[in-house]
């Protein structure tokens, strides 16, 4: 049997009001599990660019300056380890703590937010979201924009479920 998910790491701070266990509201454990599944789906975005951008269109593109390629590999390495850490926080970290799930939410929001900042600011630095012969359009929308929009919606749904699964006292236990 696994330990209950608590709002704090110490056993002394884990009380009935801050421990997420099956109780009067049976939707709490289901909502938390559903949020973790959705966050797992969105965490896989950390690995997508590694597969997509490590070929001749980006990392091995001879027209890119070597220094730009170093920065991209650095970013891809950061994304790889960020993906691993998100999966660890969601499924392997012990003792289980709802703050780890919220940390995953924040980390993933930074990743998705970074894309949206790059997208909005692209005209200022002559950035291009679509690469001809590399990207496709889904319903007339660039695949990157389409996928990140879906991931943003899924992350928002995970946050809504997590809010439902986390008692208000547990959300503010660190205050």
Describe this structure in words.
By secondary structure, the protein is mainly alpha-helical. The chain has 6 helices and 4 strands. The strands form 2 sheets. It has a two-stranded antiparallel sheet with strand order 1-2. A two-stranded antiparallel ribbon has the order 3-4. β3 and β4 form a beta hairpin. The longest helix is centred in the middle third of the chain and has 27 residues. The two termini are 30 Å apart.
Q: Span between N and C termini?
A: 30 Å
Give me the count of strands. Answer: 4
**Average residue pLDDT:** 85
Which percent band covers the strand fraction?
Answer: under 5%
Major sheet strand order: 1-2
Element order: H for helix, E for strand: EEHHHHEEHH
Uncertain regions spanning at least 5 consecutive residues: 9-28
Main sheet: strands, sense, barrel: 2 strands, antiparallel
Q: Helix count?
A: 6
Structural class: mainly alpha
Helix % is 55-70%
Radius of gyration: 19 Å
Shape: elongated
Q: Kindly give the count of domains.
A: 1
